[in-house]
Amino acid sequence: MTTEPTILLSGTDPDLPQNLPPGLKRYTRFREMARGGSGLLQSCFDPVTGRTVAIKSLLPETKRDRNERRRLLREARVTSQLQHPNTVPVYDIGDDEDAGIFFVMKRISGENLFEILKRIARGDQQTIDAYPADRRIEIIVGACQALAYSHSRGVIHRDVKPENIWVGNFGEVILLDWGVAKVWGHADDNVPIRQSVLRPPQSTLDEQEARTSTLTGGGQRPGTPLYMSPEQVDGNRGIDERTDVFSVGVCLYEMLALREPFRGATIDETFENICSREVAPPSERSPDREMPAGVDKIVMRCLEKRPGDRYQVMRELISDLRDLT
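The structure corresponding to this sequence follows.
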């Protein structure tokens, strides 16, 4: 868990730097925060504003890849245009001479929801006390607010999962990673996935690599297998806001039951479960976990196989979740 830096008078008084260099050379004190298959996230200091920021760029081996550059630039622009309390503010977008495409955003302190759920599953009493079911539902509502706003702007997230829900140290909830978002008016780049690599489950919430592997390469579906909707898996049906409703339902189920509803030993089996298998409500799956009355009905409506049987808009789901708390 990270903390916010203290504001010092010495950091507010200096004159603006002279002859400010272009691109990433403007920033100092780089420190790696995370890296993925193609991207790198670093924190650094901006001497102009006097604040620590986060910068997302491509890894050296992918920075010249045209598709990766296009994807990161789209993520930057989508994120920058979704100006909402539950999305991260973007300060700048650029093309650095050495690092390639990058974008600068607010550096938020805290941790993602998956880390919180892992500690709860392991019986960490401090985390259990800090995040009872009602608080966890509030966190999901925050993510849903970001989705309701993005849907009103014609953007479908397509990769809603606990790792992408950031919980700040001061109560903020931020929905991150719009890298595989679908924007209305753009051709759908979805095609069906076959074959697989998900590892067999060993224990609740302990196979992070399997559950977070995002399939976004050529010939693969955007999203993370365990959280995909049936229409994402199928690849032959339109993707709309009800796809995000399904993924939110998976997050709700996992958050309450501390079990993933559709996990299989392989991606093929997982996809078969998503498309065909009916799962028990979370309260039946984990009867030892405390859950608000009525939450099963909400979760199971989100997880309907047919989009027409789910919540049709995110605001309706938000309203029902708020009635629980």
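The first strand starts at residue 28 and ends at 35.
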